[in-house]
Amino acid sequence: MASMISDFDESAHRLPEPKRKKLRKIETVNQDQAKNNQIRWRSLAEQQIYSSKLVEALRHSRRETSPATISTRSRAVRETADKILAIAAKGRTRWSRAILSSRLKQRLKNHKKAKAKSKTAAAGYSRPTNPAIGVQKKKLPALRQRTRVLGRLVPGCRKLSLPNLLEEATDYIAALEMQVRAMAALADFLTGFNAGASNLAESSNRLEMS
């Protein structure tokens, strides 16, 4: 009887081990995936592919859009750069899928807002003020507040758990760093190209005058 009880106790202690092994495997897979993503965004080949796609997209958008102000141009360049970055991620991450779907959502949102404004203006309806709006909200714990802020900064990650949010944020930061490197290299190339073109024009003018 005592041997049966001891065998039962040993088997009870051994039961949770497969679950722990499973969790460890999942953690190692996630860590390996995060490391691979960081290496992928840091590679020179990935940066060159992104730069070439960005140049093509900027040329295409410049042909289609009419001349605009500096602010609208800079916004269009930023949106194009983010869109190409999301395409380079190939939809493997939540932030890349959120960037690709944000344009359509924003258009629908603007359309709904314009429709609602036209309806309220036609009906002469004014929204009543709520006196409870000015009441202070309860303060959240510091960690939860920081998690919320981080979730707002990473596209499409507001409702994620902390481990998944950190994984998405790590990949997103690595992708943004690659984007900055690629755009800085393009800016240097264009500056050098423009300087060379202006020098060539000056030398040709001097030759014509002589």
UniProtKB/TrEMBL annotation:
* Protein's GO biological process: regulation of DNA-templated transcription
The record's GO CC annotations read: nucleus
A GO molecular function assigned to this protein is: protein dimerization activity
Q: Which UniProt keywords apply?
A: Nucleus, Transcription, Transcription regulation
Where is the protein found, in the record's own terms? Nucleus
- Is the keyword Transcription in the record? yes
UniProt biased composition (Basic residues): 108-118
BHLH domain: which residues?
127-176
Annotated region Disordered: where? 1-20, 108-131
- Give any Pfam family that matches: IBH1_N
Among InterPro entries, the record links this protein to: bHLH_AtIBH1-like, bHLH_dom, HLH_DNA-bd_sf, IBH1-like, IBH1_N
What the entry lists under CDD domains is as follows: bHLH_AtIBH1_like
Q: What is its main location?
A: nucleus
Among PANTHER family, the record links this protein to: TRANSCRIPTION FACTOR BHLH148 (PTHR33124:SF12), TRANSCRIPTION FACTOR IBH1-LIKE 1 (PTHR33124)
Name listed for the protein in its UniProt record:
BHLH domain-containing protein
Which organism does this sequence originate in?
Nepenthes gracilis
